[in-house]
Amino acid sequence: MKIEAPADPPSAPRRSDATRAAILHAARERFATDGYERATIRAIARDAGIDPSMVMRYYGNKEGLFAAACAVDLRIPEVGALPTKHVGAVLAAHFFDRWEQDEVLTAVLRVAVTNAAGAERIRAMFPAQLGPVVAGICPDPADAPRRAALVASQFLGMALARYVLHLPPAVEMSRDEVIAWLAPTVQRYLTAESP
After folding, report:
1. Ranges of each domain in the chain
2. Would you call 193 helix, strand, or coil by DSSP?
3. Rounded to 5 degrees, what angle do the CA atoms 127, 33, 19 make?
4. Exposure class string for 75-87: b at 16+ Cβ within 10 A, else e
5. Ramachandran class of 89: left when φ > 0, alpha when ψ lies in -120 to 50, beta otherwise
6. How far apart are the C-alpha atoms of 153 and 175, rounded to whole Å?
7. CA contacts within 13 A on the Cβ side of 22
């Protein structure tokens, strides 16, 4: 009779996954608080409760760690099947919910306002992920990059006011109020004729 060793439970995370998660969490916090230049591998490792060599083992250097910590999938919903007139509201609701639930987006935005590498992450992320959605909706796909930048300006502007600067009127607005204000402007950027 052959006895097999019991398999690891499928829900039990591997130790390396937990270490990576701790490093990324500490890095996001440290980059958001100190900025890219002042954040150090030693401080991030200390915050994560690990040896600095582990950070280097997983991410190679500070640049690699920063890239991993700031990698964000905006998870933009599929809007192609929606009536065009609802897309602005759907995107406004989606981005509001993402900012409310994802500390990584706020950390990336904090870094972006003070650091060239952080700004580059935002400059790459929004056109790459939002651009194709806008191109599928706007009247002239050649105008999609400009329209995507205008849409991003609404979401980034509100996020800066609400989550980074904590401007009281922006913080005090309810979800429905924020969406009601943003949606018509986003809709106009998406579907109006070019001026």
Report:
1. 15-69, 84-191
2. coil
3. 85
4. ebeebeeeeeeeb
5. alpha
6. 18
7. 18
Closest CA to 170 of 185, 156, 158: 158
Which pLDDT tens digit goes with each residue over 12-67? 446 788 899 899 989 988 887 787 888 899 999 999 999 999 999 999 998 889 88
Q: Which two tokens stand for residue 21?
A: 């998660």
CA distance 102 to 3: 45
- Extract the runs of DSSP E, i.e. beta strands, from the chain: none
Alpha-carbon gap, residue 11 to 94, rounded angstroms: 29
Q: Which two tokens stand for residue 128?
A: 């790459």
> 167, 157, 133: which is closest to 147 by C-alpha?
133
**CATH architecture of the domain with range 15-69:** Orthogonal Bundle (1.10)
Residues near 170 by beta carbon (within 8 Å), at least 6 away in sequence = 158, 161, 162, 178
- Cα separations (Å) of 171 from 114, 143, 168, 178, 182? 22, 33, 5, 10, 14
